[in-house]
Amino acid sequence: MNPPETLAPDLDSPSRAQARSDGIEQARQALAKVFVVPNLTYPQRLQHAKDINALLALLEFQSGIVELESRPQLIDLPVAGKCNLRCTMCGLSHGDPSYPNWTLAEVQRFEPLFKTARSVNPTGAGEPLSNRDLFSMLELFFGYGLAAGFFTNATLLTAEKSERLIRLGITQLNISIDGATKETFEAIRHGAKFETVVGNARAFVQKRRELGRDRPALQIGMVLMQENMHELVDMVRLAADIGANGLYTMFVSPLVPEKMCARDPVRTNRCLREARKVAAELKLHFHAPADLPEPKIAAPLPVESASLAAPAPASVPAAVPQAVAPAPAAQLKGHYCTYPWKQMVVWNDGNVSPCCRIRDQVDGLPFGQIQDSEPEALWNSAGMVRLRERLLAGKPPPDCVACPIRTLHMQS
Ligand SMILES: C[S@@+](CC[C@H](N)C(=O)[O-])C[C@H]1O[C@@H](n2cnc3c(N)ncnc32)[C@H](O)[C@@H]1O
Ligand code: SF4
């Protein structure tokens, strides 16, 4: 179903629109055939399916299509609903309930989406390493050629688990360490011991070295809050000293307003600037949010660069028109964010949504729950379709207006 005329984006010339329409048809046909055409190995078929699906998603987005034939490229599955810690900024410490950890059978319900997806993130609000089926789930993901990595509090990261994760070939491990000192870390990460977590992170790097691997990448994750901002530079040093590949930082969500860095943007920006400098000196990859507006508080962050210049993937079969050029960003007047065209997030309570900022419905139309529908059907649920329509119409719902992560990039 195409959006009604009034919602259709004012894209570009008729010839471009026609080229995209032809491209969509050819991509659909190529996708339908990719598992039956001869002379391809199964991994090659999987790769083709993922590439064609990504191209189809881009063309559908550019063409203003809201009921999609392409499937999600990124899937978040909350395989652990329980946690052994109670960090002060986490929803689990603020009334969010725990849920039973998922079984392998629950993950298998998503298999119809795995052939065309690129990556799965088995991190929800809980501790993935507390799920005893996690390794079987990872094996399932890798059988479908998916990239998979997750966040962990690393309290349960034994030497044996580190070795299994490295040998399995996970893409990336993110270890959450929210303070560079024992005092700050343990005041935030209730139930964890600083020496244990840092020791487990070091042991992971050591094991990777012993096995002669440079992957999976190890990233240290830090949630930036009032009470740990002053240790950001030391966190950069600690991450480098551990031998991590990078430090990934994000601002604490508004769930805990008194912790928000926006309460003191001048100090926050000073710490960020200093940390960037030290990270550059240490050659550590440092992912950090943009500086906060000064002196005003809580203005939405600017959208990422509006480039959509995602090239057609190299391995797409010749049947797919690689020459279909993405529309210049300036012509994508009605477009607002690509997440609803590429990502499916499942929440601990079973709600499905396109990102971590919007939770369950738009205009009273629910995104749907995995208890009620199959995952494939939820991708085009009434709420998902309405959200796409509103974004194309330039009428984003309030959650989207306040969102600092919206993006016009189709690739993540
Ligand atoms: C919910 S945890 C689950 C994985 C694992 N238990 C851990 O702590 O890494 C995933 C990530 O969310 C972060 N997080 C928790 N509460 C947050 C909040 N209020 N705002 C932003 N990030 C938060 C955690 O620090 C962690 O990096
Ligand atoms: S370890 Fe992770 S899931 Fe557990 S309480 Fe802390 S942030 Fe939440």
Question: Could you explain the architecture of this structure?
Answer:
- The chain starts with 13 loop residues before the first helix and ends in an 11-residue tail after the last helix.
- The chain is 35% helix and 12% strand.
- Strand 12 (361-362) and strand 13 (365-366) form a beta hairpin.
- Helix 1 (14-33) runs antiparallel to helix 2, helix 6 packs across helix 8 and helix 9 runs parallel beside helix 10.
- By secondary structure, the chain is of the alpha/beta class.
- Strands 9-8-7-5-4-3-1-10-11 form a nine-stranded mixed β-sheet. It has a two-stranded antiparallel ribbon with strand order 2-6.
- The protein is built from 14 helices and 13 strands.
- The radius of gyration is 22 Å and the shape is globular.
- It has helices at residues 14-33, 42-62, 104-108, 111-114, 134-143, 159-168, 182-188, 194-210, 232-242, 265-282, 339-342, 375-378, 382-392, 398-401; strands at residues 74-76, 86-87, 119-121, 147-152, 172-176, 189-190, 217-224, 246-251, 285-287, 343-346, 352-353, 361-362, 365-366.
- The structure holds S-adenosylmethionine and iron/sulfur cluster (SF4).
- Iron/sulfur cluster (SF4) binds at residues 83, 85-87, 90, 92, 125-127, 153.
